[in-house]
UniProtKB/TrEMBL annotation:
Organism of derivation: Spirosoma aureum
Highest taxon above the source species: Bacteria
Compositional bias of kind Polar residues: 34-48
UniProt-annotated stretches for the region Disordered: 33-74
Alphabetically ordered keywords of this record: TPR repeat
TPR repeat ranges per the UniProt record: 207-240
Taxonomy of the source species: Bacteria, Pseudomonadati, Bacteroidota, Cytophagia, Cytophagales
Coiled coil, from the record: none
SUPFAM superfamilies referenced in this protein's UniProt entry, alphabetically: TPR-like
PROSITE patterns membership: TPR
Record's protein name: Tetratricopeptide repeat protein
InterPro entries: TMTC_O-mannosyl-trnsfr (IPR052943), TPR-like_helical_dom_sf (IPR011990), TPR_rpt (IPR019734)
Length: 288
């Protein structure tokens, strides 16, 4: 299982006292992992958020950079070379150049920089593939952002590129489900919920939409509704340990202790990740 409760949900609000006490290592980008498994004006300056020592909109250090790996001198040289190559190359070679640059930024976990250059490519060459890539890269950066101003900026960028690609191909349901989650921390969170419901109208068993709605139900304390969503996932994908884990948590929080014990015991048998096992053990202690 991935070490993750969706960051945008957990850090946005207190899901419940129970979820807040889950180990912090269980926090990251669940939606990104799910979506990866489903079919489905130019500037030469990188944004401030991608630079070492960048600050958030409130002037505080940008805490979302703490996941970045330190660069070796060789990696820095390679990045500088690829950036120069990308900005100087003609249209025909630009996609190939961008692919190398984005891959290296992802390798060193500089997701906002990967998104920035994917966005430059999509703006220069707005094909369906490039727009989708830009949306996906910005969404990944969004899931790692911690500071409020940066989260808002990355969410807006994500929506911008996803809206463009969905105008070309409305059938990209993973893009629509990802975009929905960027509305969680805006003044119009219901817009995200409506998008997820729209995905389910087109595909009633869409795992990503069901999972996101399950997390949002947990966020609002509607644990019985969350139980329904995670059960739906397990009907079509019984092997989903993350759905099983959150089903167990939702059952526990909704007072269905005996069933919660059974579900969490099953997770415990199948799971090898020590951090997830720590969360399971914590719930088992509460359910005694």
């Amino acid at each position: 299982m991935n070490k993750s409760i969706l960051l945008v949900v957990v850090l946005a609000t207190a899901l419940t006292a129970g979820l807040y006490t889950l180990p912090k290592v269980v926090v990251r980008n669940e939606t990104k992992q799910l979506s990866e498994s489903m079919p489905g004006s130019r500037t030469t300056q990188a944004p401030m958020a991608t630079q070492p020592g960048a600050t958030a909109g409130n002037g505080a250090p940008d805490r979302s950079t703490i996941h970045q790996k330190p660069l070796s001198p060789e990696q820095q040289k390679q990045l500088d070379r690829l950036k120069t190559q990308f900005l100087a190359t003609g249209s025909v070679q630009k996609e190939a150049s961008a692919a190398k640059l984005i891959a290296l930024f992802r390798e060193v976990t500089q997701y906002d920089s990967a998104a920035y250059y994917a966005g430059l490519l999509a703006t220069d060459q707005p094909t369906e593939q490039n727009l989708l890539q830009a949306g996906d890269q910005y969404f990944e950066a969004y899931t790692f952002a911690v500071d409020e101003a940066k989260t808002a900026m990355l969410g807006q960028k994500t929506r911008g590129f996803y809206q463009q690609v969905l105008a070309k191909n409305p059938g990209l349901l993973a893009a629509k489900a990802n975009m929905a989650m960027t509305y969680v921390n805006t003044d119009t969170p219901m817009q995200g919920i409506m998008l997820l419901r729209d995905v389910l109208k087109q595909d009633p068993t869409n795992e990503l939409a069901l999972f996101n709605l399950g997390l949002l139900s947990m966020r609002s304390g509607q644990y019985e509704r969350a139980v329904e969503r995670f059960r739906q996932i397990l009907v079509t994908n019984p092997a989903s340990r993350k759905a099983q884990f959150y089903l167990g948590v939702s059952l526990a929080e909704s007072g269905q202790k005996e069933e919660a014990k059974k579900v969490l015991a099953q997770v415990k048998k199948q799971e090898k990740d020590p951090q997830v096992l720590a969360a399971v053990q914590e719930y088992e202690e509460r359910l005694k």
